[in-house]
Amino acid sequence: MIKIAPSILSADFTKLGDEIKSIDSADYLHFDVMDGLFVPNISIGLPVLESLRAITDMVIDVHLMIESPSRFVERFAQSGADIVVFHVEAEAPENILPAINSVRKLGKRAGLSIKPDTPAEAVLPYISALDIALIMTVEPGFGGQRFIQTTLPKITLLRNAIERLELDCELEVDGGINLETAKQCVEAGANVIVAGSEIFKVPDRAARITALRACSA
Ligand code: DX5
Ligand code: ZN
Question: What whole-number distance in Å separates Cα of residue 77 and Cα of residue 109?
Answer without folding.
Answer: 9
